[in-house]
Structures are given as C-alpha cells and as structure tokens.
Amino acid sequence: MWAICKKELRQLFSSLTGYIAIIVFLLVNGLMLFVFQDNIFDFGYATLDHFFQLAPWVLLLLIPAITMRSFADEFKGGTYEILQTRPLTRWQIITGKYFGSLVVVLIALIPTIVYVFSIQSLSSNEGIDSGATIGSYIGLFFLASVFTAVGICASSFTNNSVVAFITSLIGSALLYYGFNAISRLQGLPGGLDYYIGMIGIDFHYQSISRGLIDTRDIIYFLTVIFLFLIITKRNLVKK
Fold first, then answer.
1. I need a surface site. Which of 46, 88, 201, 207 has the fewest CB within 10 A?
2. Residue range 205-234: mean pLDDT, rounded
3. Distance CA 227, CA 7 (A)
4. Are 96 and 3 in contact (CB under 8 A)?
C-alpha cells in the first residue's frame, strides 16, 4: 500500500498538480480571510468561522483536481494491468491511491494553522474559541477525506480525467450541500427534513465544528468513506 502511496505522491508532485492545488487553496483562503470584502478585520471579532465556511467549497474544486487522474490515467495509459501483475491486492492499490491523494490535501491544510496564531495575536480580548477551532479542523479533515474517497471512486469509472473531475465535483457537491438544500424545501412532512439533512455531509460537519465530537458523526464519515472505497473496488473487479 505504501509503495502505491509514494508512487501517487511522486506523480502528483512531479507535475504541477500537487503544487498548484496547495498554492491555490492557501491563496484563496488567505485572500478571503484577510484581504477581500467582509474579511476578518471588517468583521471585528477573533474567529475563523469565515475560513471554515469557505474552505469546504474550495476543497470541493481542488480535491477532484487532485484525484481525477488516480485511476483514469492508469486505464488510459494501460499501466493498471502492470499494477495487477505485482503482489498487491486491490485494497492495497485503492488505499494507496486514497492516502496518497489525502496526504496532498493534508499538506494544504497544515499551513492554515498559521491563521489561528495570527488571529490570536491580533485579538485584544480572550481570542478565538479553541474548542470550536479544533472541532472545525477535525470536521474539515473528515470532510476532505470523504471528498477524496468520492474523487477516487469517480476516477475508477472512466479513463478520461476530465469526466472523472466533473463526476467527482457533482457527487461531492450533492453530498455536501444537496441533501441540506432538499431538507429546506417547503411541504415536507414533519421531521422528514431533519432526517434528509442528516444524510448530507454539511449536517455532520457543522455538528463537529461546534466543538463537540460526537461518535455518530465520526461513524457517519467513516461509513461514507468506506462505501465509496467499496464501490471503487467493485469497479476494479469489473475492469
């Protein structure tokens, strides 16, 4: 598995894909947080809420760009057959590619801790809510993990990386906000809106972001990740 993970990292950083993903993520979030309209200085409070609201949407675009070539290029170049001749199980191939892509996302997230210390040092009162901030980072990690699983799964359906990108983008967007949007429709029977909202990622992401780590939210994220990796394995079996 780790051999595949290292191979995936080398592939991402041998081209500009990995570097561009990290730079764009940090640049967009930095500009929105400190420079553009409604930035942290205009808001007047020591909080990272704006960052944690924006980051999922940025990741929604960047993670499909990272994962779109995972299996699509292997199928297109005929190198997947070479992988099958090696002493690797399908699960090792899948998890290797999954963790390779996820490491790139984590490398993009780690420098944002600078935002925490910057806002804390600029604060003239108690500073940011450390519990909510830690919870939000945990939620953001699990959200990125789900998006990565969706991207790997989408890439296993096709040998066209552009199709994989679009499929992953749509699938991640539906999971993140689609169920939330449906739950807000008028005319739903009493209580049904709550259960529909629970299916979506945003419900559980917001729950963890309050600083309360609920095992139900953790189980939800792990289940969704495992489900998409299972679908990926079934696709590879068909291949």
1. 88
2. 90
3. 24
4. yes
Q: How far apart are CA 113 and CA 140, in angstroms?
A: 13
The per-residue pLDDT for 87 is 81
**What percent of the chain is modeled with pLDDT above 70?**
92
CA 238 to chain centre: 27
Question: pLDDT tens across 69-122, in order?
Answer: 888 888 888 888 777 778 888 888 899 999 999 998 898 888 888 888 877 776
Please answer whether residues 148 and 65 qualify as being in contact, where contact means their C-beta atoms are separated by less than 8 angstroms.
no
What pTM does this model have? 0.89
Q: How far apart are CA 40 and CA 160, in angstroms?
A: 41
Residue the block writes with tokens 């990622």: 201
Give the domain extent around 211. 2-238
Predicted local confidence at residue 226, as pLDDT:
95
* DSSP string over the chain: -HHHHHHHHHHHHHSSHHHHHHHHHHHHHHHHHHTSTT-HHHH-S---HHHHHHHHHHHHHHHHHHHTTTTHHHHHHT-HHHHHHSS--HHHHHHHHHHHHHHHHHHHHGGGHHHHHHHHHH-SSS-S-HHHHHHHHHHHHHHHHHHHHHHHHHHTT-S-HHHHHHHHHHHHHIIIIIHHHHHT-TTPPTTHHHHHHHHSHHHHHHHHHTT---HHHHHHHHHHHHHHHHHHHHHHHH-
Our count of domains for the chain comes to 1
- Separation CA 9–CA 66 (nearest Å): 10
